[in-house]
């Protein structure tokens, strides 16, 4: 378009737009003015209504305050009220109630209340006694000492909203003290506010009055007035920032616009009520307020549209007429120009080079057939397109687009010629090397009107040059890099040479395989292999595996486009092009060694590119084969050297006479010599003399016959003189003539293994000892029950006989010996149970220092005057959990053993301490557990214990004392008690020096428990005829228990089985006060029977007896809480005390 024509067009547009803009501005001004006027009018009306309602509300409040002031000014009434509140006189109550009814008589108040200073209702005109909803206002009035209006509230018997005035009153003529009370004037809010809260306007009008607090809570809504039975809403919606409630909460006063409680857009005026937190909101729906204004705005918009349409139509008609005149003139000029262009086009079509002509804007006007073939654009498609889009040149090295050359020619008006090669990127993505030139087209005033571009295809020449450069580069690269580096670089060179983003190489032996890509793979990397008439899909690079068999038979790999064939099926070649993958094999004697493939080129591959790929593939593979041979040699040498130097086992090479020729670092480190020292030595120099003959025999018998010896052991002498055990295997070295030239040996230091074997042997011995002691313990627990029953019968009857026999009788002494022997047997059984960790105990948390100190006097009497007992406690000792009687047993047994080991005068030391063991310390010590422990050590300076006896001292019945001086159960009992309490014990002894026993007991977290108070019993307690049920499956024990209990004064019922006991319990019921039951019985155990009888006799108490509890009433020999238990055998006195404790416990 010429400049003159362009200016005329712009003026025409301005002539149309300017009047329309002016008309639009006037319309907007009128629209905004009308809107502001409508809003101002509505706000003025709402403000007048709101102030009217506030004035009426203030007048109503003033009337109530006057009533309250009248009462407060009545001295007589105040005096009577003061006396009534002080005396609650009934006569005064009647007078005051009448006066209150007089105040509410005109119907202004629904109820009048008199409350005292504590807020209690003392008088009411209707009888209400509880403040229903004005409690907060009452407290505020009494606190502020002046009348206060309450918020609206409802009462339980009336759901109509009410409001109260609370007026405090004082002692007449004394307003400085506390209020005597207050008068509560309660009004019906609906009756008071209905007249001025009703919506204004005709029926259906949207105007409304709301009364709310400053915090947004409603007092009364006009819409709630007719529904007196419905509670008022508790909260207006203040969740939205544009709501009226939110504006009131923010303290805004005056006209606002927002959403009401129903979410309707409204215009409102907020006016505060003086002296209160109340706000009056007069609101009207915005739709109603602006209804008339919107109707006028619609009419204005219609008028504007009609005016704009008429004016625009006139302007459009004038414009179309001017265009028609101008286009007729242009048509004539174009016809003449078309004939001239046709002659030039015929000339251009016959030229062998590509020709492209473009106008001054760089848009194509002409493209000849050669240019069409090179660019991929047909003339009808290219016409009018930018020259840079059709003739797309890229730099060969960087791949970047070449820009600016055509614009430079158009700007300067001078011809230009390109030096060297550039790549022309065709429409289908293929790139060709081209050379060319560009010249401008001038008009008669030498002004550039366009350009002509001439170019020629130089692909073949450039490809041959690039192939030569690639081969030279790869040959040089192969000399200075590894095989992997060379192979990866070669694939990159192939990708660049073939102009393909993807290049593959696959080898059957997996010698080298790789993929090189210049961008992420697309859907075209999915490959297909033809199989008969169908297609088999193979994913990733693995699809190339399917090509080896097909290439070997001459069948082509087919990829991507199954509908296009590059030749007939009969003309099979060792390569094939189809779609966008080109693959060629590397053949040796008809065998495929490798497969090279390129893919993802923008266009189809040509036969010339196949030839290029074949030549570069053959050249690359020859270099690969050479690099493989070189790297295999280097790798073999490096592997041997690394293996030799880094072997964890020692390695040595000698000649046939034993002179050391080579050795690795491990061999030097093992013997303590450096390598140079060892090379001057023989193997016999580091081998002890006793091993020389043995090693010569190994070499002679095995090495010389089989070339390799078996695995054998010997010793080496280190440089520092120490001997180390080793394990080795020797090999014979043969020279090229097959003659032995030396020996090599792999040597391993087995010192750690030997130590581990010794440690394992010690552990096995300890395990065997532990199992033996466990077996003895299980045997002791198994026989304890029956043995104790028999002892009980023997001791019981012997004791009963003694009690009924006179002392001078000859049999009295015999019976006493029987009792003594029975008690010694009982003590042996008790010690066996302690060793077996089945002794019944009642542990508690105790302070070991305190417990030991309580035993010192007894221990000093036990060891005698010749032995000094030293006590060394550690302060702030951790508590432990243990039966105190077991501590007595430990110390008594250890001190007696220490006393017996001292010949004459000596010392025994008892000490306590704290110890903590970690996992590392416990790892190599059997029986030691990690954690915190309390130490109890007993030491003596006696004769000590021989080392070979230390492993046996805890075995039951083992003793070094003379016959008759010990049972051999003392230390066994100590061992069992320590293990039962999850501790461990260590012994340190040296003959002639002394012995130390160190006992470690686990620390207990908790508070030390007080000793239980035991009531002292001076004489054997007897019964008062209480009924005792005795259950025992042993008939002899049953008869004995009956005899003992009857002797003690009890009424006895006996049962031999649990079933018989249950029948007796049902028959006698509540008369049974005590159940004495054996723990181990057939049918059911003692605990189960006790529970059954307790359901029949709720008052019954239970005393369990047994020689072995078997975890029925104890867990791991620890008595359950609250269980009374007596161990068999027992005497008549022990039975008497235990029965008495159970009945009175």
TrEMBL record:
Ranges of residues in domain Response regulatory: 1027-1143
Keywords of the record: Kinase, Membrane, Phosphoprotein, Transferase, Transmembrane, Transmembrane helix
InterPro entries in the cross-refs: CheY-like_superfamily (IPR011006), HATPase_C_sf (IPR036890), HATPase_dom (IPR003594), His_kinase_dom (IPR005467), HisK_dim/P_dom (IPR003661), HisK_dim/P_sf (IPR036097), PAC (IPR001610), PAS (IPR000014)
Modified residues (4-aspartylphosphate): 1078
Pfam families, per the entry: HATPase_c, HisKA, PAS_4, PAS_9, Response_reg
Catalytic reaction annotation: ATP + protein L-histidine = ADP + protein N-phospho-L-histidine
Domain spans labelled PAS: 340-413, 636-678
Transmembrane segments: 12-31, 298-319
Domain Histidine kinase: residue ranges: 782-1005
Sequence ranges assigned to domain PAC in this UniProt record: 417-470, 710-762
Domain of life of the native organism: Bacteria
Gene Ontology molecular function terms on file: phosphorelay sensor kinase activity
EC number: 2.7.13.3
Enzyme class, broadest EC rank: transferase
Kinase is among the record's keywords: yes
Protein name as it appears in the record: histidine kinase
Native source organism of the sequence: Desulfobulbus propionicus (strain ATCC 33891 / DSM 2032 / VKM B-1956 / 1pr3)
Phylogenetic classification of the source organism: Bacteria, Pseudomonadati, Thermodesulfobacteriota, Desulfobulbia, Desulfobulbales
